[in-house]
Structure formats: structure tokens, C-alpha cells
Amino acid sequence: MRVELVTIGDELLLGDTVNGNAAWIGRRLAEHGLEVTRSVVVGDELDVIIEAVTEALARADAVITTGGLGPTYDDLTRDALAKAAGAALVRDPGLERRLRERVAAAGRELQPMALRMADVPDGAGILVNSAGSAAGLRVELEGGAVYALPGVPFEMRTMIDEVVLPELAGEHRVARRTLRTALLWESVVATRLAPVEAMDGIKLAYLPDSPEVRIRISATGPDVEARLAEAERQARELLGDAVYGTGEETLDRVVHGLLAERSATVAAAESLTGGLIGAELTRMPGSSATFAGGIVAYATALKEQLLGVPADLLEAHGAVHPDVAAAMAVGVRERLGATYGVAVTGVAGPDAQDGRPVGTIFVGVASPGGEPRVASPSLPVSGTSPENRAVIRRMTVAHALEQLRRVILGLGTGPAQKE
Amino acid sequence: MRVELVTIGDELLLGDTVNGNAAWIGRRLAEHGLEVTRSVVVGDELDVIIEAVTEALARADAVITTGGLGPTYDDLTRDALAKAAGAALVRDPGLERRLRERVAAAGRELQPMALRMADVPDGAGILVNSAGSAAGLRVELEGGAVYALPGVPFEMRTMIDEVVLPELAGEHRVARRTLRTALLWESVVATRLAPVEAMDGIKLAYLPDSPEVRIRISATGPDVEARLAEAERQARELLGDAVYGTGEETLDRVVHGLLAERSATVAAAESLTGGLIGAELTRMPGSSATFAGGIVAYATALKEQLLGVPADLLEAHGAVHPDVAAAMAVGVRERLGATYGVAVTGVAGPDAQDGRPVGTIFVGVASPGGEPRVASPSLPVSGTSPENRAVIRRMTVAHALEQLRRVILGLGTGPAQKE
């Protein structure tokens, strides 16, 4: 079963919005053994939408569109599908009633424009949207079915799960597994995995996102599950403790799981990351069992006041120093009464700070009994792009979580550290 | 000048990676008056890449590809462009030398596989990558030029700015402006702006991202700049204080600017957002001038210990209560010595808390002199999707920043509040 995506909206071409919908749909369909073979973005133009949908159906078995189902006049998907099907747009009484009820329940007045969301190409199937106002459509065209979904992510996602997948889900012919690693360079991973790459019916893909590399193992042919298991076994042996999880087991989930197993908690002391570590550690539902809280000591003076970092240390070396990271970790652990404390200090840029270049970071981890441990990861950042700041902050969060994982498991600081 | 994008990589189709590159390129080209008219994602398959590039060049004047220039065997862009051009791949001595130098400088050994990054289709132009290892390529095919760039975002971005834009930048024929609003529903915005929509040569597009709606005004025809200015003037008059900025002026930048003008600072007390508000307020370079720090009191007991929220208040009402939001804002402002304090408490889900349903949030803002103010925004979230948690957290951050903006400017809490 080959599926193509057509995501619709000038905002996507202009880059006002990132196409997270396409990524999410690709992932979800892959989980169900369906393959997205191409993904196209087109603007809010009637004829271009018709052309893209028609071309996609010539190659694929089904097409999913997102966007263009809202109430405003740049929402053209309904019109495009009606024209492609040679059908008129008709107002659906059930949809109109539902719209009026939703608006009334919110104590609002219905804008006449909103009634466009009750129009459907004559003969099209209506896909219930339990999460929002705009219904989806199923339109049968020459070549296959088009599933038109709204662009609002949580509405689209609900409808994929509740409506589209139950209709499309086919049988697996490819088995896939993703291994997640941290602290190894992509070329090191690829070189180590050469023997797995050479296995019959096995294909590897590398997805670097420093300091992480995900490796997607795809198996085809007879006994795909056994092949995949053997490839995974060999890959794990070759990569060792750099493998921290599989599939959707992101670092925050893995750390949450490790802490939960031990009935332990963590507190975060942040500087350049401004709160991102705490945000990451609270993504998971149930994170209140493992995350106590955090202190963002952005101003240097607050590192002393809120975390007890010795003033003479800050005076002698500035805020970006391994001993400061250690003291922050110890301070936040003690003051928030957590099992572990994790702390970062560093220079996100664009300017150097305290004589340290942009990209310098120190990660401290404090644990029950014993000295705090500090890692000094080497970040692959060069040049003076203003984008670097966001990249450095994101990498710092991953290094903090990975160092916390390594301390919990009794592992060393690992590769990719500065000398 | 029409440009199409071909972004390459199984990881994009499978959704392991979100296509942020396409969004960024669309935005950057639009800023320079260039139009991305279509964007296609294809997997790591030689013939599919060739087909997509060829089709794109048949419609557009130039094609930009990203991805597939790395060292591993699933990196096929070089091979595809060589085949499309009918040229052999040859090793470039200058690129090889540069690769060897970079690796030596990092104190590493060159993996033989990495040398693939020195191969170029015979006759192709080499695009310097000042931010990383993989060079880009300019290949002239029938129909126009293909610019092949690496998929690593900060490398790709650097090369767009340093290499591609200087070559492609054409003259403006469309003038665009984006107004950013908060707290108004999309249909309310669209209804109010009907008179602007009716203006000659003016097109409006709505980009909702609750609680924000961006409105992109496009002007065409003679005197585009004057038309655009008049449309913007009328739109601002119709939307009033809901307009908080234009273009790339995100809420965090606007708040940073307002604070900086007043030599004022803010401190954040967070609960359900786990640090996201602090992270947002420190995205900007220079944010240390306006952001003092934050306290993430995730565990309820820490709201008393770290922020001084009265214990009897927490006992009587739980952590999700307007008075708790007010006390958190006052507490963080005082303890961190900031001009303003902003605080949030609420229920991100998936389960209700303290008898409050998922999606309940309270935003407190404390300022110099006067009582703290609490807003209770109504979030358009329904259903029980596990995605809701992330959506609620993101909306909460935007409401916190918007309420802070409104307090700084002396505005009321605005629409979209619960009764």
C-alpha cells in the first residue's frame, strides 16, 4: 500500500509554519506498515491542488491531504476535490447542525463564514472530526481515494488514528526498528555497523542529530522479524552503551523510566538552557513522579543566591566553569530534596562569555553519596550563524539528559568529551 | 523567479525528522522576493530523486535540494545529479584536502567512507560549506540550475545565505507583511478584516496557532508598497491591541523589547510548563538583560518552599487556583528581585488534577506596585488525545507571554478568557 501526502497551504511554502503534519503522518503510517512514498507541499491555489492530488493518485494507492478545510476564503480543498470529482458542493445538514451546536456550547455567535465548513462535494464521505470543527472528507477519484483532513495538528492526528488508519492499515512487508544512540559521531556509527550493513536483506539509515544518531534498521524478505532481531542484536553488540533506547524512546522517556524504576527524582539547575531541561523532563505524562522542579539561575548573582554556588568561585572563574556546574548540581539537589541534581552552564552565544568561546558547556550531575561529576562535551558547532544559539541550547539539553542517564546507570562520561 | 524544493531522505517520509529545512528556506526566499512554488519530499532512492528533480525543473526556474550529501551509502544526491547530468563522479582534490584537514584539526581519524563527500559530478560547481564537512553542488541541467545543499540545518542555512541567495535574489513583484495577533479567534479576525480582504490587489491569509493568529497581507499590482501600507493601516485599526507584532516579531521578542526599553526584568514561576516559559524568554541573544531567572515548582510542596505560596491556600484549593498563580507571580518577582513576575499553574493532562479538568490554566502577573493580576484563558482543547498535553503546554506559554505584554502596556486581560 503506497500512500502519498499533499499538504496544502501558502504558509508551508513560505515557511511560516513547519510541516510537522507530514512528519507525524509518515511516522504513524510507518508504524502500521504503510509507506509514505512521496510528500508534496502546494499553495492555496485551486488548480495546483487539483494537479498535485491527481498526480499523486497516478503513482499511489491513496492520497492524504491536510489543510484547506477551514472557514476562510483561502481554504480551497473542498472546492478542489469537488472540481476533481466533477461534483457540486452541497451543504450537509448534519455538519451544519454540529457547527451550530459547538458554537452555541462555547457561548459564541456563529460567523456566517464558518458555515463553509458544512459544505461537501456531492457524494463524498464525511470523516468525523471529534477534536474540532472542520470535518474531513473521503473522495473517490480515478486511481484511488483521497482523505482530506484539516491542518490543525491535533485534529488531523485524531482523525488519522480514529478514521484513516482503520481504513488503510495493511499488512507488513517491511519490518523496521530504530536504535537510538548518543555521543557517537555518525561516521563512527556507520563504520562500526559495516558488518550489519552487509547482512542479507538488511538496510541501515542514519539520522544524526548531534549528540544523537538514530539508526533505522529495515529488514525485508522471508522471516523479516527474525532477520531484524538478529541485525538488532549485532548492532547493539557493536555499539555498546551508546544505545540508550529504541523507537520513540527519547532520552527524556528513558531517564523518566530509569528514575521511576528506582523511585528516584531529579531536580535541574539551568543557565544557558533557560528552562529547556525542565521542559524536556516534564514532557511525559506522569513526570511529576520523577521531576521535582528546577531553578533557572540565568543572572550570575542568582547562581549564588538560589543555588549556593560559592561567590569566590564565581568571582575567580566566572559562571562558565566545571566547578560551577558541579556546585549548581549539588545545590539544586539539596535545596529541592531530589535524588539527583543535573546542572548546566555554558556559552550559547552569539558572544563569548567569561573568556570562554561560544559552544563551551559543562554538565554537572550530583547523586546520593559521592562527589558530583562534570562532563565537558565537545559540540560540533562552528561559524557565527545566529542559528547556533538554538542549536547549542538543544544539544546542551541532550548532553544533560545523557549524562544523567550515564550516572544513574554507573557508566563513564563517554566519548565526545573535550580533552 | 520560481523555485521548487526537493528535500531528500527516508527519515522525512517516515517522519523521524520534521522538515524544518523546507520551512526555513521558504521563509528566507520569501524575504528576498523569491517564491517557493512547490516542495517535494522523496526518499533515498536514486531514480526517484532524479525524477523529482527533473519534474521540478520542468515547472520552475531553479531547484534547491537538501539532504543526501553525507558520507553514508544512503546519501545518493551526488549520484543522482551525476546521472541526471550524464556526468561521471570524480574526486575533487581540494575537497579531499579540506576534509582531511578538518578531521586532523579535531584530532580524529578520517573514516574512508567520509571521502565520498569529496566526490562531485564532473563539471559541477562546488558550493563552499563554511559550517561543516559536506560541500554543496551547483549542477546545470536542462531547464535550469540545481543547488544541492546538505540536510544538516545550520550548514544548509549558512549556505543559503552565503551562496544561494546572492545568486538567485531577484526583484520583488509581490510585497508581503505579516501581522501577529493574540487572543482572537481566526473567524473573528477574518470577519473583522472583511473590508481589507475586499481591497483591490490585496490577498489575506490566516495562520492560526492558538492563541495566536498571524495574518499575511500580500499586495500585488502597481504601487505595491503603498497598497500594502494602506492595507496594514486598516487592518491594525480593525484589530486594535490584539496586534502585538509583525513578521518575525514573536511574543518573546516583543516582550524582550518592551522590557529592555524600560530597563526592566522578568522572573518566571512555572508549574505545568516545566521551564518552557524561561526557555522562551531566553531564546533571544541578549536576553540576560531582561530575564533574571525562573523557578520550576513542579512538585506542589515546592510552590510553598521555593515561592512562598501559603500552605493553607494549597491545602484548601490545591495547586490549580487563581490565588496560587497570583502568589507564585509575587513570590518569584520578590525572591529573584525582578521588575515583573509571571507565573502559571494548570492542568496539562492527561488526567484532571485537584478537581480541575485538563486544559484549565491560570496566568498570574506581578508588577511594581499594585495587586498581581490573574487571567484564566479558555483553551480550545477537547478530546483525550495524548497530543493535548504538548498543545496545552505550548498554548500556556503563549498566554503567559501575552498577559505579561498586556500588563507591561497597561492593557486589560483581553478576550478568550473563561467567565
UniProtKB/TrEMBL annotation, chains A, B:
InterPro entries: CinA (IPR050101), CinA-like_C (IPR036653), CinA_C (IPR008136), CinA_KH (IPR041424), Competence-induced_CinA (IPR008135), MoaB/Mog-like_dom_sf (IPR036425), MoaB/Mog_dom (IPR001453). Transmembrane segments: none annotated. Residues 4-171 form the MoaB/Mog domain. SMART domains: MoCF_biosynth. SUPFAM superfamilies: CinA-like (SSF142433), Molybdenum cofactor biosynthesis proteins (SSF53218). It holds the Pfam family CinA. It comes from the Bacteria. NCBIfam families: cinA_nterm, molyb_syn, PncC_domain. HAMAP family: CinA_B. PANTHER family: NICOTINAMIDE-NUCLEOTIDE AMIDOHYDROLASE PNCC, NMN AMIDOHYDROLASE-LIKE PROTEIN YFAY. Belongs to the CinA family. This is CinA-like protein. It comes from Actinomadura vinacea.
